Amino acid sequence: MRLSKFFMPTLKETPSEAQIASHRLMLRAGMIRQSSAGIYSWLPLGHRVLKKIEQIVREEQNATGALEVLMPTIQPADLWRESGRYDDYGKEMLRIRDRHGRDMLYGPTNEEQITDIFRAAVKSYKDLPRNLYHIQWKFRDEVRPRFGIMRGREFLMKDAYSFDIDLAAGKRSYNKMFVAYLRTFERMGLRPIPLRADTGPIGGNLSHEFVILAETGESEVFCHRDLLELSIRDVEIDYDDDLEPIVERYTSYYAASDDQHDAANCPVPADELVTARGIEVGHIFHFGTKYSKPMGAVVANREGQEVAVEMGSYGIGVSRLVGAIIEACHDDDGIIWPAEVAPFKVGLINLRVGDAGCDAASASFYEKLQAGGVEVLYDDREERGGAKFASMDLIGLPWQVIIGPRGVKAGVVELKNRGTGEREELSPDAALARLAG
Ligand code: ATP
Ligand code: MG
Question: To bridge 333 with a disulfide, which of 29, 311, 324, 393 should be the other Cys (CB 3.0-4.6 Å)?
Fold first, then answer.
């Protein structure tokens, strides 16, 4: 992509309404634009990141055997009356009436809708287990939308729903999502911490929130420092295996939110305890027959008796992740994208547009990167070098290639790693080889 043809309305000034780094940087980098409180348009740069995150989430869900569907954003109120949540949900639900006077709503979540789809089609234990998910916009009329897309009113969520014949099978489905979440967040360059979460009146221990640490997190988190060293990256995963040992490895470490943590009775010695702030990026929850019972989602078991199916739901804040990743990965100059979610891999800077040598060398480098399938943003604008460096640092692409008159004469380009700041001069071919793949 040539920057001269792109749409990336960067801001020089720090927007006054933005209180935290990710919100400031997303506005300054021209990734989003506010439409109204907590509702945003995604501009090309932001949209590319959103889609990359969505795709990682999708691939890791598919790997577990979950099946993608797409349910509507607008739902009939009657479904929510069946579960009893229409009245309970309160002011966060955006209620709409259509021209025929029917009550509708903009979905804040989809348990009722998926239960309705399931109950119409599945009648036997033979068709279980199933996990259906979608990646769809949600609306919650938050009292205090803030921090940009981190706590929006309209936001993109992946929500998966599992259906099982009994609790033991439900636990297997839960474990698959637990492991998939670890893999998903790690692929994005994050270190997820599973925190046991409140299960409310349902009880049990099958609810975890996944948080990542960042100074601006909304909640306080306490955990054993060794939990932060765990990695799932090199663990071979077979989703048909028993995943309980992996789940246990993660849940054996102390990890608590501020409402669970009791400093006086904490089992972890002070020098091994990490106290930090966390951003919730995902939440998994086994809730048994909470919806299947009132909504009549029953199947015949092996003995031919009708039983309500065991269900769980599993959310990931896809749009929140864009901000959460920035909170975890930035410096004073701007964003530092982890490779897997970067909007482009390489930012190519032509330091002297109009100089025949620089133009030719840059164009050739650009074409070769593109031919090799490397995503590149080519700054071919007639701008000062300083301004180009600043905007490249701001948008945080993992690699920068700088081509200027001195280098062209010497037959070299400069390669800069945005994360480490390391710079190196090498021949164009050597740089291309480094950036390939
Ligand atoms: P929170 O405690 O942050 O309000 P929640 O517990 O209500 O979130 P869930 O219903 O568990 O959220 O939704 C699943 C995921 O969706 C959350 O883990 C979070 O990442 C994301 N999410 C929830 N609310 C918002 C929001 N207002 N804006 C952006 N993402 C959100
Ligand atoms: Mg939650």
Answer: 393
